[in-house]
Amino acid sequence: MKNPKAREQSFSIYGPLSLLMLLLIWALLLILGFGLFFFSMGSPFADSIVGSGAGMWTRFGSDLYVSGTTLGTLGLGDVLPRSPLARALVICEAGVGLGLVALVIGYLPVLYQAFSRREVSIALLDARAGSPPTATELLGRHSFEGGDQALEALLAEWERWSAEILESHISYPILCFYRSQHDNQSWLSALVAILDTCALLISVLEERPSRQAQLTFIMARHALIDLGQVFDLRQKKTRLHQAQPDRLPAAEFNHLCGALADANLRLCGDLATAHRLRTIRSLYEPHAIALAAYLRMPLPAWIAQPRKKDQWNLLTRLRSEAEAALDAEPPGKGVASSFLHEDEQSH
């Protein structure tokens, strides 16, 4: 598909559609399997439509009909088993059919609950790291007074989120194909943005919550690697990583340092900073690139692209103007006191 929007929409229905197809295939295989059991027993049924001299394919069709009605627990009674073994097998298939219905009833809510829990944290990250999320935007929006504590709490939350992703998506790998319902968001880009942030906190920035960054990095990387192993991407990650362009070339690294400095973040001044960041990137980027190529999910950039309509910048500017106006007003002569004075005059 050449149209990116149409391509992404088709990818968004792939996960739910593949789940429904999986359940359908399970049911069809069970019907076929029990039908083959009945056929191997010589089609031991009394069928008013299919006589005793019917051909092989006609008898096999009757067996499939019995298997389908039994698995669905219809119990029409138009075809009756004539041997004790056939009766026992019919009872077993009816029990399997009830188990399949119970499995579907319990399977779908578990999947969608795990999907909803995953998407809540991704949606909350939008206000903290931009859309799509980037490490520089996340760090820049936590450069206020007390931002270290807020950033540490956020990283602790994403450490737990990574552990939940590890458990739920390994148990139900089909969740990896489920797309986010919002544009420019995906669970993979959010996870990689958090890993990028942890990499910067560990190797580039000073006086930031590096301890929590290390814990979150280990858990997030663990989830990334194990999910790649679920899809057997171990052999492909090196080849895909070499084929993809560098996510952070040298010129982009200087731009990154400039963006962090503009956000009033203190950088490590030694010459080995770039080497440390490159080393820590090599621990997770090959796995992230392999998963992104397999799932067709783009990875986030390191620096947010400028946007014409940025709500965060607008809110920040309005708040700065409000603080400047309050600082300029003498005590007791602010906007609230003016409203109070007008209210007193009206009374």
The whole-angstrom Rg is 30 Å
Helical fraction equals 55-70%
The rounded distance between the terminal residues' Cα atoms is 69 Å
Number of strands: 2
Quaternary structure annotation: single chain
Derived structural class = mainly alpha
Fraction in beta strands: under 5%
How many H/I helical runs? 14
Order of helices and strands: HHEHEHHHHHHHHHHH
How many domain regions? 2
Shape from CA axes?
A: elongated
Task: Give me the side-by-side strand order of the main sheet.
Answer: 1-2
Sheet bearing the most strands, described?
Answer: 2 strands, antiparallel
Uncertain regions spanning at least 5 consecutive residues: 335-343
Average pLDDT confidence is: 85
What does this structure look like?
There is one protein chain. With 347 residues, this protein is mainly alpha-helical. It has two domains: 17-105, Helix Hairpins (Orthogonal Bundle), CATH 1.10.287; 130-295, no CATH class. Helices cover 69% and strands 2% of the residues. It has helices at residues 4-12, 14-40, 56-71, 84-129, 135-140, 147-171, 187-203, 210-230, 236-243, 250-262, 273-281, 285-295, 311-328, 335-346; strands at 45-47, 79-81. It has a two-stranded antiparallel ribbon with strand order 1-2. α7 (187-203) packs antiparallel against α8 and α9 (236-243) packs across α12. The protein is elongated. The termini are far apart.
